[in-house]
């Protein structure tokens, strides 16, 4: 394949950084939309369909297509982007190792120390209900999609954070 | 690792983007090397040395302090 080179370096390397910028911007926009939507207390029926469906239409192609491609396609990364990628993956691995036990510890702490539930009468019942605001009434594939979304968002945020820190 | 890339580039009045184009890397990579945030791989170090027509050790300095 013929490599497209410009006076500012190979195009694919520049596209990689631009797509990463776009992914961060679109995801931050999505987070803002969720925060504003939740804070406003509006019901779904009160929101015009164009407004309601705009964030997902923008975010889903980025989250489910562009970012996974940015993670997988090493040919789009020069050696510095590869360094940032490795640093980001190492940080994600640490988060993956630490976050689940941390969530467990916090949930049990809230349940036993703050709420002071009656442990003796639980009979195997665990304080899962504390996670209901996040996970209740989710269809199972929905949980996978949200986990995927969180992972790709984490990758983009950490990559851009590492890049920003290096540029200072 | 310290290096003289920024000085050598300035002497030739090249922008970071222009140098990136000559080295087949991104502008971000040139910036990271110049600021010492990234040590280039051996192949890239050789490309830099060839471009500036200098030995590698005259561009990169691996001595402490």
From the spread of the alpha carbons, the general shape of chain A counts as: globular
Strand content of chain A: under 5%
Return the structural class of chain A: mainly alpha
Low-pLDDT windows of residues of chain B: none
Going by CATH, the architecture of chain B would be Orthogonal Bundle
Discrete helix count of chain A: 5
Order of helices and strands of chain A: HHHHH
Biggest β-sheet description of chain A:
none
Give the N-terminus to C-terminus distance of chain A in angstroms.
Answer: 36 Å
Number of strands of chain A: 0
Share of helix of chain A, binned: over 70%
CATH H-level superfamily title of chain B: lambda repressor-like DNA-binding domains
Q: Just give the CATH class of chain B.
A: Mainly Alpha
How much of the sequence lies in strands of chain B comes to 5-15%
**What is Rg of chain B?**
11 Å
- Number of separate structural domains of chain B: 1
Residue-averaged pLDDT of chain A:
83
Mean pLDDT of chain B: 92
Question: What order do the helices and strands of chain B follow?
Answer: EHHHHHE
GO molecular function (chain B): DNA binding
Keywords (chain B): DNA-binding
Domain HTH cro/C1-type (chain B): 5-59
Protein name (chain B): Helix-turn-helix transcriptional regulator
Notable features of this structure?
heterodimer, A: mainly alpha, 5 helices, globular, B: 65 residues, mainly alpha, 434 Repressor (Amino-terminal Domain), two-stranded antiparallel ribbon, 58% helix
